[in-house]
Amino acid sequence: MPATLHKPVAGALHIAVHIGALLPLVWLVYAIPRGALGGDPVKELIHYLGLGALRLLLLTLLVSPLARVLKMPRLNRLRRPLGLWCFAWASVHFATWLALDLAFAWTLIGEELVKRTYILLGFSVWLILAALAITSIPWLVRALGRRWKQLHGLIYVVVILGCIHFWWSQKSGWLEPALYLALAGLLLWLRREKIRRWLGGFA
Amino acid sequence: MTRPGTLKESQITPESVYLNRRLFLKGAGLGAGLMAMSTQAGLLDFLTPRSDPATVDLAPRETLAFKAAEPLPDLTLTPELKAISHNNFYEFGTGKTDPVENSQGLRTQPWTLRVEGEVARPATVDVWELIHTAALEERIYRMRCVEAWSMVIPWLGIELGEFLRRFEPTSRAKYVAFETLYDPEQMPGQKNRFIGGGIDYPYVEGLRMDEAMHPLTLLSLGMYGKTLPPQNGAPIRLVVPWKYGFKGIKSIVRIRLVEKMPPTSWNLLAPDEYGFFANVNPEVDHPRWSQASERFIGPGGLLDQSRQPTLPFNGYGDQVAALYSGMNLRRYF
User: Fold this and answer.
1) Average pLDDT of the segment spanning B172-177
2) What 3-state DSSP class applies to A54?
3) Would the pLDDT of B81 be above 70?
4) Whole domain around residue A46: which residue ranges?
5) What's the Cα-to-Cα distance from A100 to each of A109, B300, B305, rounded to whole Å?
């Protein structure tokens, strides 16, 4: 029998997710003027946002194995806010690159998106996340039915591409991105049966 | 017009930035009265970084006497606080703020620089004596980072060529090899590969002899009227304005004149991305980003970003392009 996660506790967890994902963004407004990201925060800001999105993605994937181990299926409801926050962070990450790094130089943006594979990877990840976020609207979840599960299995692809995008964006050093990739691999391995069924769904 | 004496920074820097700097530079010993003046941040100043004086206690810097540069009306200086808090100095960590945060304890005094190799008179130089006795010149140079951002910085220093001539290079001296301090106790990135970005330390750089002897090549001993802060390569560093910033090796302890092209750190790490020459070239992209334009780090706030076209040889083509005549710059990037 599943252990009970009492309603108030579940509600508190929900709120904790929102606060936990929002606070580091609010912190930026306080910290950037105080130089916490350096005299020129653009590069650090992009990195901070990208890494935050990746962490939220990994957290999203951690929920269902955790719910299984703790026998608390209600925990699974946290996947939705976590996933949506991941998309929000990824969007701010992308927007920062567009607006602050490339200063809306659209020709350059177009060229970079096509020519630089690691940027193309990041862009693809963002597009998939956008599709997943839009189809999280309750009536679309219902309308899509079985296809919804099939679509949202793309998170398995997203997490791997996201880690490669991170690795590729590094100027040097591989330890940190390797850790993220290993963590992603572990989280996918924990649900290997589910992934096999998901892949079978395309046949 | 050049004139001796100290050029007031307020003359070449917008006033708001000049005042902001006071807020930041607590470590430089500036009074609290001036700090109070700059706290009335306007709406446009929103998100303009002013490093928190409470978070970083800056190492003291000495004010230097120098021959001021001629005013360059086309160039806007990068505010000093940005130039000293946005750095690549992987010995102190790979993040842009790691150097300012982790380097303030660097022992820069005393500091000796060994000059040896293909020279008639090898010697060990007392760098502080050099700082206090050399006729320092101000050079306002564009600085283009290989990561496609740029600054304009008023360096103080002496021409590397003039300096090297003191040691009487021999006819076998074809290249100059530079080496940064190796001291893992002081430089966390050298102690731990995770912090140091996987570079094999000490950091090494090199120039061809004619590049080293070129009058634009500066052995820098200061910036913004004062000695160099640790995060910018105190007490002595290289500045080669027509090359990407990583050629400007910091905190130098050894210069060797050699016959063969010396190894260089970034080239060793990723030879397909960073060449020996590393001349700024808008036509040769970095494999992972375009080098055709750059984000100029000027006095504006976070939301006030501008990109500008990158110039061949970073705008110093008239002076240096001849050094590379007949060379395929795509191949020798």
Assistant:
1) 98
2) helix
3) yes
4) 7-200
5) 12, 12, 6
* A36 within some domain: yes
Q: Give yes or no for a contact between A121 and A177, defined as CB atoms under 8 angstroms apart.
A: no
Q: For the full predicted model, state whether its pTM sits above 0.80.
A: yes
According to the 3-state scheme, what is the secondary structure of A81-99? HHHHHHHHHHHHHHHHHHH
Place of tokens 């602050």: A100
Q: How many domains does chain B have?
A: 1
Strands (E), B76-190: 112-117, 123-126, 137-144, 149-159, 175-180
Peptide bond into B122 cis (omega under 30): no
Q: Decide if B290 and A172 are in contact by the 8 Å CB cutoff.
A: no
Angle at A50 between CA B101 and CA B250, to 5 degrees: 35
Query: Per-residue pLDDT for chain A (203 aa), expressed as one digit of tens each?
Result: 556 778 888 899 999 999 999 999 999 998 888 878 887 889 999 999 999 999 999 999 999 999 999 999 999 999 999 999 999 999 999 999 999 999 999 999 999 999 999 999 999 999 999 999 999 999 999 999 999 999 999 999 999 999 999 999 988 878 899 999 999 999 999 999 999 999 999 87
CB B150 within 8 A of CB B65: no
Within a domain: residue B193? yes
Is A1 inside a domain boundary?
Answer: no
β B252-258/B112-117 pair status: parallel
Residue B162 placed within a domain: yes
| Element (DSSP H or E) covering residue B223 | strand B218-223
Q: How high is the pLDDT of residue A32? A: 87
Partner residue facing B86 (CB), from A39, A47, A111: A39
Distance from CA of A41 to the nearest CA of B (A): 7
Report yes or no on A159 lying in a domain: yes
Alpha carbons B148 and B144: distance in angstroms, whole number: 7
Find the CB nearest B293 among A44, A108, A168.
A108
Q: Give residue B177's pLDDT.
A: 98
Q: How far apart are CA A61 and CA A154, in angstroms?
A: 12
Number of domains in chain A: 1
**Residue B153, in any domain of the structure:** yes
Task: List alpha helices for chain B, DSSP H.
Answer: 15-24, 32-37, 80-83, 98-102, 127-133, 160-165, 188-191, 193-196, 209-213, 265-269, 317-320
Using CA atoms, how far apart are residues B290 and B142, in angstroms rounded to an integer? Answer: 19
Closest CA in chain B for residue A39: B82
Instruction: For helices A117-134 and A79-96, give the axis angle rounded to 10 degrees.
Output: 140
Cα of A64 to nearest chain B Cα, Å: 31
Name the band, by pLDDT with cuts 50, 70 and 90, for residue B28.
very low
pLDDT at residue B49 is higher than 70: no
Query: How close are the terminal C-alpha atoms of chain B, in Å?
Result: 36
Output helix, strand, coil percentages for chain A, rounded to the nearest 5.
80, 0, 20
